Amino acid sequence: MGQPKALLTLPSGERLAERQSRVLREAGCARAVVVLGAEAERIAAELRGVEIVVHSDWARGRFSSLQAGLRAGRGADGFLILPVDIAGIRAATLGALLAAAESSGAPALRPRHVGVPGRVLWIRADLAQELLAEPARDIRVDERLAAVEAYVDCDDPAIHRNINTPNEWTTFISEITGQN
Predict the structure, then answer these.
(1) DSSP code per residue over 95-156
(2) Which of 7, 27, 83, 104 is deepest in the core (most CB within 10 A)?
(3) pLDDT tens digits, 65-90
(4) What is the pTM of this model?
């Protein structure tokens, strides 16, 4: 990307990590934390209005970063995990996932659009404790949870988004500003 994804700037001036944190709160999350690893001090200095957890052992992989976020939320009933690069997801989509979590007995939920699961994940507190007990190795959480997760259908294609290149970011910005 040429810069940390958390610092990508929307036309409004809001940074991507700030937006994701705001959308989580708008959806009904009591708390939203942004886990930072590489370049944490520099990134944290540029973000406003977000709670930050610095994961100094970030080089161990994404799973260890997830564990850092889960540790920061001890005592929560559940956890909504939103990767920063799922740009444009709607608060209503996340709110529907949280509402389903209250009525579902599933230990893990994902939104699903046109039959394809998204990259957002909600997990119950007991499942979070299981994940925290695992060694901090780089495992694929989606593979680890596939047998226990359920799905909530939605009409939000952004659940599949994964911004990894400057071109993908430019395309996304063009979509939200109506420029082609």
Answers:
(1) HHHHHHHHH---SEEEEEETTEE-S-EEEEHHHHHHHHHS------HHHHHTTTEEEEE-S-
(2) 27
(3) 999 999 998 889 999 999 999 999 99
(4) 0.91
- Domains of the chain in start order, with CATH, are 5-177 (3.90.550.10)
* Residue type at position 40: A
- Does the pLDDT of residue 169 top 90, yes or no? yes
Kindly give, in sequence order, each residue whose CB lies less than 8 Å from that of residue 60, ignoring residues fewer than 6 positions away.
136, 137, 138
For residues 69-92, one letter each, b for 16 or more C-beta atoms within 10 angstroms of the residue's C-beta and e for the rest, the string is bbebbeeeebbbbbbbbbbbbbee
Whether 178 has a pLDDT exceeding 90, the answer reads: no
Which long-range contacts (C-beta less than 8 Å, at least 24 apart) are formed by 102-105? Answer: 104/150
